[in-house]
Design brief:
This protein is α/β, with parallel strands linked by helices and 1981 residues long. It is built from 55 helices and 57 strands.
Length: 1981
């Protein structure tokens, strides 16, 4: 026997019911270890041999039946367990070794069936009918129960079960010696029986007997399995089913609950299927002594010390006995897995459905849908707010229907008629009997069963503690808690499974607090701590305790105790129901707990209200629609109509309507038309200023969200996963997918059109048409697929376009495409989202980013979600710590604000319910139990609206037939247009989810409106998702007038365009699809929403319809000033109080009377709506914004007379008959509202006038001016829209939903938030913590990600990675925000800024400056005249003079270099910049990157992944560190450099042996002509630019092989290596950490020369001449981004005309061109122009110049061997070096037809040198004048290299040293052997002291100064004597220390001609340890 349960075939060993056959993963045919190996005959005196035979027999049988499994060897079975004392009774194992084969033919699934049992064929001609013996006699109990049966002495009649007849027992006579006694033992092995049909006797083998009685088994026949019940005669002498035969204790269902204080019944984790842990064998205290419990033996317990046995409530699948006990609890204990088959409720007639899947139903693995037949499988648990899920076993996860046992219970025929509701029976623990008869009148649900199962599974959290001692809640306690819960429910409350789960959780936590704490503190102990000492509830005490609990509840909970099975209890309940004895009872709890430790229970909901709601909540949306349709089609609803007509004393409403119509036909129509004509004609009348359609602008919030989205997209691109390469995209395209609602579609089109996003993305030009916009919005309907395909094709063809796929309203269709076909052939749209958005092409396309946008993201936040938590963007909160983050002039008013309005005592709540409506619905529900409550509610509400319309139209008697709320709505709807000069009115949203009912409501209301001649007063619009809006012509005309629309064809297509239209919008469709509503929405009537679907998404979605932006513009002070001017009576009559309060909450509270405040606390709006009259009905209290209105102060604030719409609603009117509506409403609660209220505001003189609002003025049709006095000044009338902006709509809810929404838990979290988040998910465990109010959206998301799993029908169900990172899709984002908050605007804005960013990414700012000092170029005869030469001619070139003048614009503020060519005449420097201009930003141009650009680290593309070393296939590149040393005399020491060489680059180097010492860098030959690679190694010195430096030369080199070395400082090595793992690094020694660029250049050049020598030596051995080794290197800046070439057309040799064009080329092209130059080795330095857009033909006319080269130079290290860079320099080191090279007689050549573009990089480079004080920490700015000081002074020392201080000081303050030289170009400063920048005002003349050097002829010059910088021995006294100086010229000598300063003065005999003073000595402001430089200045004598 195997120990593990991991084989594939066992997953297929389901028996027909879809269960795993055995507990604990024991294979079919194998025995659980230990005593379960004994058969029922294991009594003490038995021989060992019998035991051996039995084990042998079992082992053989197991091997025969186990397909491919190797059974455990017989001997190990015997002897591993033989020593252990076996207790007499087998407890927690299984009833017998083959219970799983329940029916015999168990579970042969096609995937791998066990070998069926081979039956002998029956003899020829015998009867083979089920239920008959082979002789053809009937054996069925039902047939022969009353016949006399001959039973021999010593025989008993027993009932046998046949798998083919699950509903019948076959009668057999069996010798009782072969049956067990009451304790389950002492049965003899073997069998002896007779057939009672034909009388054949003496069957000695059960196999033979089972053949005779046609059991037709597929497994080996066993008496234990098929002989189930004793049969007994009842009082009438009829044979009936008696007690179960107790085969070795199987009746007691081995179920030690926590009643057994000694037995720990914690389940092992799901994986464990090892030996069971030991159980004690003592009987349970309190149980009857004859029932020993749970004695279980273990295998070697030491192997799994922490695993406790898995014993638990049974999962019944059998027809009669609860076998398969431990299944759910063990395998599923703590591993919540979704159950595939939602919930099976057995409401159909008992038939073979229990056998499992019917052939046409989906197989178990198809998951998720019911099988049809009588089984109403609840698809997605339809709405009962929590459907706790049963875990699944193996791949095919199936819920376990709790199937009945025993004889059926008959449901009485007239049950529904008598009870007025269908009882809902929840299966609880244990066996549930069959029901038969009138099954349509009851509903059976397994919800409670699943809830019990779930709370039995102990939390995952305690599993890893090895918590063997913590037991689950016992079944008894569960049942008691259920009773307690039901007892405390109010009469109008409905039980919620979620509440019950939380009760179980709390109870379990409290009872096990000590153990839990122990586990949390200590390590798992080898022996578990003792269980808690609380006395457990035993099954015997249970009924008594339950009765005690229920005794206090006035019989609302009734307990029925039964003896044998639940069947008796159910029968009893049905009897009591029929007799009417349970009229007051809402819940019946039936329990059977007498004879065994296992209890059976069920709970029946019999309360009419609760039963109706619960039974309706079990319907899926589809079933609900079907049911309603059926009732409408079959005319069942006509009963309602008939009933309504009896209510109306004047007869039928329709008769009244007709009468009214005839009476008023004449004058009404004429007056109406007259008024409407005058209205439209009176355009010059005062126009209404409140009407303005919102202009489209982006609010700060939307911009913030768009930027958050952008930063998320960037972070995906920046991550090293290479999932998104933003650099490779040139533009953005998008597609918005929306649900199939025409209005949403038009609304989205409108928003896209007006946002301008299309033109911004460059997708559409100026003339956009509607058709063009439609391409970007996809309605997910039947036609969607073709449009989507073209989108995919488009994305495939345009790899450089980034496509954003926006899935708006993303919570809508989450059905998996896998189950789509199963679910609904009728609706092709189902599962469409999954088929389109989750298709492979979308997931794999590297250029598609999917953005899900929704207000209810919960269903996308499960354990299997595809969206990473890091890719979620939540709408930001407007306030953080009291700070308004994004100031806006509008405040969002959403669900939480609505709920707050119910809590704040001083204003009328915006959420209300209508108690009289609810009362009427409840009454009618009892009267018409067969009608669905949605039908009743709709008919009642429509009736109320009809009556209210009639009442407002003058039939005042009808007021008694409507509710206060509906009357208020209707009054305001009809009267609001009269308040406004333009006729603007308000919208009433009437939500009717069911489309057929909506159509009925529409027709009825339209009919009533027509009869009352109100067609032109308000419109009724039927809003159906599938169709557009239809509005009458008259109203379209009005809308066009208001919105100033000329287009004759215009029709409103969105609800937003109905702004200001007085209308009732009947909004249908099961879910809203994101339709936005206009600001004129004043009432949101949700009284008809399906109150049973208590799911968070559904609830919030409905309430989201009312979400609103409230104007914040009304200042509170103004409101506070104006308020007290109102009279109190006006407060009473006008609804403005209520309306204004939101805006002025602070100011109004003090004037509210206590009485009123108390009243408005009662949220029954029937009581509170006294003052809450319609919004349009009141005079304007705030001055309206009319230009001519008088100022606030002088304006007469007189209250308006009470117009028709403001009729006071006096108490008298309220007392109307409540026929058939339950008890009359409580009047007393309302009346205080009318009492004169204590007035805290100053009273005004008009108060007396207004008080005349009395009950008498009830003639609603009167003009209403009766009570007004002529003296009142009429006030500007008030448009309802003015208020609309300032106050959200009023929302009416069903009472059930209202209670749910307004209830809060202990943390203040609304109850609604803790509901199941969505229909398509389920809780992962009932042991979850509660949500808390303080959770942010992100924390809520993480909560749902941990605690919810998708149902099988959910599209994420198959994404089984359970939160592992690789399960997330990298390019998927989720944007969530409250409904109607502006998410569309935010994502459209995101598209715009994403597009801008991409364009910005493909562009770069390059320096674009003209060359400087062009005018100083002397026209000489020496030009390079061969204009078309591709390369310089060496002889010609040598004759060119060197141009000393610097032309590079970056040196605009550097000193000019004078040469002999300049004449003295040009005094002023041409364009000298003013000093303040020096810091102006340098000019740049934005350039589009070409395909030959160099890139920084942010560029990722397919081609250069391998180049960058980030390719996923490679490990992060391995590199090796190599030291490389060479000596250099000038430094006087050996230089140690380090190379970091990636493995991929080692071929560029020579090593002493593989992996050995680095010897040299390979160099090519001059003679090589290959075009495959670049010969010159490129060195790029860099600092501070690891991210931004342009080191990716792959594209610039056009993929050619090249050697590129980054030269970095030691402290930056690691960061550069991280960003550029595949680049060679040359690491400078640490002494250069603070050095400037000169040091890098110096070391590059020295290293390269040293390497050249090494290579020459190495290759000489190979026979290569030293001069053939390639001597060039490239030194490039880290900001060179692109290279250009100028193509010149010279148009003939002589011609001076030529044309030219510049184009971008690769660096490879340029390098190969230069490297191919003839005689190239004769040039020392080669460079190119710096690009400028202002380049003129003069600059490119000559192809070559002999001048300075910068930025990108090609250096001949051989020729320049003796010319060094100055390693101390920070600035101008290239100019200094150029001058030295030239003076050494070497050639510098600039290719003018090539140019380099330099990118502006704002970080790093020379900017990284900061000069700060060494002493103080505070970053005080230090000016250059402070860079030097007197020696030995107390000056602040600076933390900067001395050389840098020197250079910076001279650049800014050299005029202090050289006053005569200022702006004196004729007399420059003589600079010996170096060029230092003395600022742009001072010119210098450079001379070299080296012998044979080329120098400017200085005989003409008289110098104004002399600069000697660290001069060496070549400078002597005689050398200086050659130069002439002005009198008063100044000298500056700079040396390393004071000593050498004095020596230099002496050596150069300076004192002969120069005069020095002590105070003229200075030093750089460095501390001694930083080795300052010293200066000495003097004057020429």
């Amino acid at each position: 026997m195997r120990k593990e349960h991991k084989c594939t075939s066992c997953t297929s060993m389901f028996n027909r019911e879809g269960f795993l056959p055995t507990p604990l993963g024991i294979e079919s045919g194998e025995q659980p270890p230990s005593s379960s190996l004994k058969m029922g005959n294991s009594y003490a005196g038995q021989l060992k041999t019998t035991r051996f035979e039995e084990v042998l027999h079992n082992s053989i049988e197991a091997s025969l039946r186990s397909n491919s499994l190797v059974p455990r060897p017989v001997f190990s079975q015997l002897y591993l367990e033989a020593e252990q004392q076996l207790s007499t009774l087998e407890g927690g194992g299984r009833g017998d070794n083959e219970d799983e084969e329940e029916e015999g033919e168990g579970a042969l699934e096609p995937s791998g069936p066990p070998n069926p049992y081979q039956m002998h064929p029956p003899p020829e001609g015998c009867c083979t009918t089920d239920g008959f013996c082979q002789a053809g006699k009937d054996l069925r109990l039902v047939s022969i129960s009353s016949e006399p049966i001959d039973v021999p002495a010593g025989f008993l009649l027993v009932g046998a079960k046949s798998p083919s007849l699950p509903d019948h027992l076959l009668v057999c006579a069996v010798d009782k010696r072969f049956l067990p006694d009451d304790n389950g033992h002492n049965a003899l092995l073997g069998f002896s029986g007779n057939c009672v049909g034909c009388g054949k006797k003496g069957f000695c083998y059960f196999t033979e007997f089972s053949n005779h009685i046609n059991l037709k088994l597929t497994t080996q026949p066993k008496k234990q399995k098929h002989l189930k019940y004793y049969l007994v005669r009842n009082a009438q002498g009829t044979l009936t089913k008696g007690p179960l035969i107790c085969w070795k204790g199987s009746e007691f269902r081995s179920r030690p609950t926590s009643a057994s204080a000694c037995s720990s019944s914690l389940f092992p984790p799901a994986e464990s299927s090892g030996p069971l842990a030991a159980f004690s064998s003592e009987p349970v205290p309190g149980a009857s002594p004859s029932v020993p419990l749970g004695a279980q033996q273990a295998g070697p317990a030491s192997e799994h010390p922490s695993l406790a046995t898995a014993v638990g409530p049974a999962v019944f699948n059998g027809k009669d006995s609860p076998k398969h006990q431990q299944l759910v609890k063990n395998d599923l204990s703590a591993m919540p897995r979704p159950s595939a088959l939602g919930i099976l409720s057995n409401s159909g007639p008992p038939k073979k459905r229990h056998k499992g899947w019917s052939p046409e139903s989906p197989s178990a693995t198809d998951t998720g849908y019911a099988q049809g037949g009588g089984n109403r499988a609840k698809y997605e648990s339809a709405g009962m707010s929590c459907v706790p899920q049963v875990g699944s076993v193996g791949p095919a996860s199936v819920t376990f229907p709790v199937v009945a046992s025993g004889e059926p219970v008959s449901v009485p025929d007239n049950l529904l008629k008598i009870c007025k509701a269908k009882p809902v029976i929840f299966k609880g623990h244990g066996n549930f009997p069959y029901l038969c008869g009138n099954l349509s009148d009851v509903v059976v649900s397994p919800l409670l069963y699943t809830c019990y199962q779930n709370s039995q599974s102990i939390s995952r959290a305690y599993e890893h503690y090895g918590a063997s001692a913590i037991q689950p809640i016992s079944e008894e306690v569960q049942l008691l808690l259920t009773v307690y819960y039901l007892v405390q429910l109010a009469a109008d409350q409905v039980p919620l499974m979620e509440d019950l789960e939380q009760i179980f959780l709390r109870s379990w936590r409290e009872s096990h607090l000590t153990e839990i704490r122990q586990y949390q503190q200590a390590q798992p102990q080898p022996c578990p701590p003792a269980p808690s000492a609380v006395a457990p509830v035993t099954s015997a005490q249970l009924p008594w305790l339950a009765g005690l609990a229920a005794s206090s509840c006035n019989d609302s909970v009734h307990i029925i105790e039964c003896t044998y099975s639940l069947a008796e209890g159910l029968s009893e309940m049905f009897r009591l129901l029929i007799e009417g004895k349970l009229a007051k009872t809402n819940y019946v709890v039936i329990v059977r707990a007498c004879r065994s430790p296992a209890i059976d229970s069920c709970v029946a909901v019999t309360g009419k209200y609760q039963a109706r709601i619960l039974s309706e909540s079990l319907l899926t949306p589809a079933e609900y629609q079907k049911e309603v349709n059926y009732e409408l089609v079959t005319g069942k609803v006509d009963l309602l109509g008939a009933f309504f007509s009896t209510l109306c004393p004047e007869g039928d409403i329709d008769i009244l309507l007709d009468k009214f119509h005839q009476e008023n036909q004449g004058h009404i129509s004429s007056s109406l038309t007259a008024s409407s004509v005058t209205k439209s004609a009176s355009l010059d009348a005062p126009a209404c200023t409140s009407y303005n359609l919102e202009p489209h602008h982006i609010r700060p919030f939307q911009l913030a969200v768009a930027q958050k989205l952008l930063s998320h997209v960037c972070s995906i691109a920046d991550s090293s996963t290479q999932n998104l390469d933003l650099g490779s995209f040139e533009k953005v395209d998008f597609l918005i997918c929306i649900p199939p609602s025409e209005v949403t579609y038009q609304q989205t089109l409108f928003r896209v059109w007006h946002s301008g996003v299309l033109s911004e993305l460059g997708l559409e030009k100026e003339h956009m048409t509607k058709q063009r916009v439609e391409q970007y919005v996809l309605k997910l309907d039947a036609e969607a697929q073709t449009k989507f395909k073209s989108f995919l094709q488009n994305s495939f063809q345009n790899p450089h376009t980034l496509f954003v796929l926006i899935h708006d309203h993303a919570h809508w269709d989450l059905v998996s495409s896998a189950v789509h076909n199963l679910y609904s052939q009728s609706d092709p749209a189902v599962g469409l989202v999954d088929r389109l958005l989750n298709c492979r092409e979308v997931k794999e396309a590297p250029n598609i980013v999917t953005l899900h946008v929704t207000s209810f993201p919960y269903a996308l936040q499960t354990q299997h979600t595809l969206i990473s938590p890091y890719n979620e963007i939540h709408w930001p909160a407007s306030y953080s710590n009291g700070v308004d983050l994004y100031p806006e002039n509008k405040k969002y008013f959403g669900l939480s604000e609505f709920i707050e309005s119910t809590l704040s005592g001083h204003s009328l709540p915006l959420l209300r319910y209508d108690s009289s409506f609810e009362a009427m619905v409840t009454a009618l529900g009892k009267r018409f139990p067969r009608l669905h409550s949605a039908v009743i509610r709709t008919f009642v509400l429509v009736q109320h609206y009809a009556a209210a319309m009639m009442a407002v139209s003058g039939l005042s008697q009808m007021k008694n037939y409507t509710s206060v709320e509906t009357l208020e709505i209707t009054q305001n709807l009809i009267n609001s247009p009269k308040q406004c000069p333009c006729g603007h009115g308000l919208m009433v949203l009437l939500r009717v989810p069911c489309s057929p009912l909506a159509a009925v409501a529409y027709e009825r209301l339209a009919h009533v409106r027509a009869r009352l001649a109100l067609e032109e007063h308000f419109e009724i619009i039927l809003g159906n998702p599938s169709s557009g809006i239809t509005v009458g012509k008259h109203f379209v005309k009005q809308l066009k007038l208001w919105q100033k629309i000329e287009d004759a064809e215009w029709r409103p297509q969105t609800y937003l365009e109905l702004e200001g239209l007085p209308c009732i919008l009947i909004f249908s469709g099961m879910d809203p699809h994101g339709e936005s509503l206009p600001r004129s929405l004043r009432y949101c009537d949700l009284r008809l929403i399906n109150s049973s679907c208590l799911v968070r998404t559904a609830l919030e979605q409905e309430l989201g319809l009312a979400a609103y932006f409230v104007s914040d513009e009304v200042s509170l002070e103004k409101a506070a000033r104006n308020e007290p001017l109102e009279s109190d009576a006006e407060k009473l009559s006008s609804t403005d109080n209520e309306d204004e309060e939101l805006v002025t909450e602070g100011s109004t509270s003090e004037k509210r009377s206590p009485v009123k405040r108390e009243r408005s606390c009662s949220h029954d709006s029937a009581s509170s709506s006294l003052s809450s009259k319609a919004s349009g009905s009141a005079p304007c209290r705030e001055s309206s914004a009319q230009p001519g209105a008088p100022s606030q102060g002088e304006r007469a604030r007189s209250p308006q007379p009470c117009g028709p719409s403001e009729e006071g609603r006096a108490p008298g009117e309220r007392q109307r008959p409540h026929a058939g509506r339950g008890p009359p409403s409580v009047i007393s609660r309302r009346s205080p509202g009318l009492a004169a209220q204590p007035d805290s505001g100053p009273r005004t003189s008009q108060r007396s006038v207004q008080v005349s609002v009395t009950p008498s003025s009830s003639q609603l049709s009167s003009s209403g001016s009766s009570s007004s006095s002529g003296a009142l000044v009429p006030q500007a009338s008030r448009c309802s829209l003015t208020k609309a902006c300032r106050q959200p709509p009023v929302v009416f809810l069903p009472k059930l939903v209202y209670d749910m929404v307004t209830a809060t838990d202990s943390s203040g979290l609304p109850k609604a938030a803790s509901l199941l988040p969505s229909h398509s998910v389920m809780w992962a465990s009932s042991f979850r913590p509660l949500l808390s109010k303080t959770m942010t959206s992100t924390e809520q998301s993480l909560y749902y990600r941990q605690w919810t799993v998708p149902r099988p029908s959910h599209m994420d169900y198959s994404n089984r990675t359970e939160g592992r990172v690789d399960g997330f899709h990298p390019r998927r984002l989720l944007l969530s925000g409250p409904p109607q908050v502006g998410k569309t605007g935010a994502y459209l804005q995101f598209l715009s800024i994403l597009s801008r960013m991409l364009i910005r990414l493909t562009e770069v700012d390059v320096y674009d400056e003209e060359e400087i000092n062009i005018h100083l170029r002397e026209e000489s005869d020496w030009h390079y005249l061969q204009l078309s030469d591709p390369w310089p001619d060496l002889e010609l070139f040598k004759k060119l003079p060197f141009d000393y003048i610097i032309h590079d614009p970056k040196y605009e503020d550097a000193s000019l270099i004078c040469s002999h060519l300049q004449s003295v005449k040009s005094e002023a420097r041409g364009t000298s910049r003013k000093p303040e201009e020096l810091y102006v930003r340098r000019q740049t141009a934005r350039m589009r990157l070409s395909k030959y650009a160099a890139y920084n680290t942010y560029h990722h593309c397919e081609q250069c992944h391998h180049y960058m070393g980030f390719h996923p296939r490679y490990q992060l590149y391995e590199s090796t560190l190599h030291a490389f040393a060479f000596s250099y005399s000038m430094l006087g020491e050996e230089i140690q450099l380090h190379f970091i060489i990636p493995k991929s680059k080692e071929h560029h180097f020579v090593f002493s042996q593989p992996g050995g010492q680095l010897e040299s860098m390979r160099l090519p030959l001059v003679t090589d002509k290959s075009h495959e690679y670049i010969k010159s190694p490129t060195f790029t010195p860099t600092t501070g630019r690891h991210e931004h430096g342009l080191f990716n030369l792959y594209h610039a080199m056009d993929g050619a092989s090249h050697l590129h070395v980054l030269v970095v400082k030691e402290y930056e090595m690691a960061i550069y290596k991280k960003y550029w793992p595949n680049h060679i690094m040359l690491v400078l020694p640490s002494i250069f950490n603070s050095a400037g660029v000169g040091a890098a250049h110096f070391l590059i050049k020295e290293l390269s020369y040293h390497n050249l020598e090494l290579e020459r030596n190495r290759q000489e051995e190979l026979g290569i001449k030293p001069q053939d080794i390639w001597p060039f290197i490239v030194i490039s800046d880290d900001s060179c981004v692109m290279w250009n070439v100028v193509d010149v057309d010279c148009g003939g040799e002589r011609s001076r005309e030529f044309s030219w064009a510049e184009r971008n080329v690769s660096l490879k092209h340029i390098m190969q061109h230069i490297e191919a130059s003839p005689n190239i080795t004769h040039y020392a330095l080669i460079g190119m122009r710096k690009w400028s857009s202002k380049t003129g033909s003069a600059e490119v006319r000559e192809p070559f110049s002999r001048c300075h080269v910068h930025d990108f130079i090609i250096l001949n290290v051989d020729l320049t061997q003796n010319v060094q860079y100055n390693q101390n320099r920070f600035t101008c080191d290239d100019v200094d070096f150029n001058l030295r090279v030239h003076s050494a007689g070497l050639l510098l050549c600039r290719f003018n037809r090539f140019s380099v573009m330099k990118k502006q990089i704002a970080v790093g480079g020379h900017r990284s040198c900061h000069i700060t004080s060494k002493v103080s920490d505070n970053p005080v700015a230090i000016v250059p004048a402070q860079y030097i000081c007197a020696p030995d002074s107390k000056h602040t020392f600076l933390a900067a290299p001395a050389q840098l201080l020197l250079e910076k000081f001279l650049q800014h303050h050299s005029h202090r040293f050289f006053p005569l030289s200022l702006r004196n170009r004729g007399h420059p400063v003589l600079s010996v052997d170096c060029y230092l920048n003395l600022g742009s005002q001072i010119s210098v003349c450079y001379v070299s002291s080296r012998p044979h050097s080329l120098n400017v002829s200085c005989s003409d010059f008289v110098f104004s100064g002399l600069l000697l910088y660290l001069c060496d021995s070549f400078v002597g006294a005689s050398f200086l004597k050659k130069f002439h100086f002005l009198k008063g010229a100044t000298l500056c000598v700079i040396c390393q220390d004071r000593n050498s300063l004095r020596q230099t003065v002496v050596r150069l005999e300076l004192e002969d001609e120069w005069q020095f003073r002590l105070r003229d000595e200075f030093q750089t402001a460095n501390a001694k340890e930083d080795r300052p430089l010293f200066f000495l200045t003097g004057r020429h004598i």
